[in-house]
Give the backbone structure.
Amino acid sequence: MIFEGGCYCGNLRYRSEGEVLGRGQCHCRECQYSSGGSPNMIMAMPSEGFTYTRGKPTGHTRDDLDVAVTREFCAKCGTHVLIRVPPMPSMVMLRVGTLDEPDLFGMPDMAIFLCDKRIFHVVPEGVPTFDKEDDVTREAVERWAGGSN
Ligand SMILES: [Zn+2]
Ligand SMILES: [Zn+2]
């Protein structure tokens, strides 16, 4: 599949090609900061099929964590476009709201970091949930990365 998307102001555009590796609903505290309070919807795509077709992102990586993700943003409007996760270098996590057609996401196949879930967060019925970082990482690596890299 081919997905196209970009930031709110149009400064940043991307193209993502390949098989969807996973669809997640992330409740972690960091996602709450960047989303405005709700969980984030993320779609794992092969990193080799991802390219920015317009603009260059700025990135942020916390330096106080052993394994910190890198979040890439539009430097102009601040839209957070994707997440790179060190244990899973073969994939990028697209933020579904930046897709030109967000409905192509469908529904999440897992809800993660339930340890940080707020009382106003809703997990769709039947979606498997994972509490803690270790479980999330192991499960996501097994399910999404299929053992590669
Ligand atoms: Zn922008
Ligand atoms: Zn998160």
In short: The chain has a mean pLDDT of 90. Residues 7-9, 11-12, 74, 76-77, 79 surround zinc ion (ligand 1) (CB under 6 Å). Helices lie at 29-35, 133-145. The chain has one domain: 2-139.
